[in-house]
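In the current project phase, our protein records have gained a structure token line. A sample record follows, to show the layout:
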Amino acid sequence: MSAPPELLPALQHERDISYWAVIFLLPYDFILRLSLEIQYIWKSPWTLFKALYLIQRFLPFVDCFFLLIIFRFAPGLSEKQCYYGHRALMFTSTVGVALSNIVLSVRIWNFDSAFRHPRSDIQVFEMLVLPIQTHRSLTPLIVAILPIPNFRGCFIIDGDEVYTIWITWLIYDTSATVLMLIPAFWAYREGGLPNLLRVIYQDGALYFMLMLLLSTANIVIIKTLPSEFTLVLGPLQRVLHCILTSHLIIHIRQVASKNIVIESTPL
């Protein structure tokens, strides 16, 4: 299927946001945080948690950088290659987001047992529902290769069911936000929180609220704007899931190891 030339501005916006998120933001954050990551992650003993953290940390370089850049800028792609390439991109992105949520959940569980059981329930919900919903929403994708000379790459021009993926994330992020805010509120009323728990609740709540807002924005864009804008914020949200999870994990380890008073958060 070929897209009409009038779609070019919308698709160019999607490409520009993807390019900024992947080419600039992801490597920049990795370089900026490398010394802290070496100190608090790489030098720690090898555990399952460390392995999961590193997978979710580096997976965006695979699913976003290689897959997304290839299918945005590669010449001579067929529509079949474009279709299956975007399906692969969405599946790996979904796995990456799920891993980020698992890593963050495990770290919070270690310090707050009251948070463990309700959070594990919504984690199971995400693990069971998200893969099925991702497969169902990606099956009817329609892709396009623009009939314009020297225009590289291909795009999704119709993905009306993709919004259901963000609905699943929205349910998860909303539940997690509530589970973070309720104990934080009661602990504050009873006399405050230790530094470590304050970091967990404060940064964790900010993280989930930001992801909640991004998921909501994605749903609104998909349901109200033309179908060409289906994935305009997708790559950015994918990258932010990884970056903010990594920041929060490192921040928790900083406070746990130094027992310092935190005046602000590095989110």
In short: The longest helix spans residues 79-111. The helical segments are 8-32, 34-42, 48-73, 79-111, 116-138, 163-189, 195-224, 234-258.
